[in-house]
Amino acid sequence: MSTEPQPDGAPDLVLRPAAPEDADALAELATAARHAAVPAMPPPVHTPEEDRAWIGRQLAGEREAWVAERDGGLVGYILLEPGWLHSIYVRPGLTGQGIGTTLLDLVKALRPDGFALWVFESNAGARRFYARHGLLELEHTDGSTNEERAPDLRMAWPGQGRVAQE
User: Fold this and answer.
1) I want to staple 23 with a disulfide (CB 3.0 to 4.6 A). Which of 18, 56, 109, 125 is the partner?
2) What pLDDT, on a 0 to 100 scale, did the predictor assign at position 92?
3) How many Cβ atoms are within 10 Å of 56's Cβ, its own excluded?
4) Cα torsion angle, 76, 19, 64, 51, sign
């Protein structure tokens, strides 16, 4: 599916469902984005090889993934499950160009009854991004249940329903 021109400046993106053969490219993007986000996000706890294996399993499983491409190159992706946005990544150096907004708008279209996500408390930029797009902060944790052991918070976009807030 190709996007219509967007007021956020990302009319040149092509959005499409991810395929199993995208696993290596998605893993590379996720690894690069996680490393580039330090110290706003905790350092990654998995190797690039572990990232590739995990994403390969997700694409073969029940999670839904979409990619954003520009000029044939992968510039971002989302990974969804029912009621949740598991991951949203934009290639380092391309933030602020409307890619994240376009991907988040896609999530809202795919999950019109709402969705939730986890974001690290230290990731102020991501928190501001989500708040600008109507997500609400619902729950703060001490991080004891995530792999990084870093404080995080659950945010939600209520959509047309209340699913994401329950």
Assistant:
1) 56
2) 96
3) 17
4) negative
What number of CA atoms fall less than 13 Å from residue 20's CA on the CB side? Answer: 4
Enter the pTM of the model.
0.88
User: Binning pLDDT at 50, 70 and 90, where does residue 55 land?
Assistant: very high
In order of 4, 29, 50, 125, the CA distances from 45 in angstroms are 37, 16, 10, 21
Q: What 3-state DSSP class applies to 62? A: coil
Q: Strand 136-140 to strand 84-90: parallel, antiparallel, or no bridges (unpaired)?
A: unpaired
CB-count burial class (<10 Å; 0-12, 13-18, 19+) for 8: middle
Amino acid at site 74: L
| Mean pLDDT, range 118-143, rounded to an integer | 96
Average pLDDT, the chain: 90
Nearest residue to 114 via CA among 83, 90, 149: 83
Domains of the chain: 14-165 (3.40.630.30)
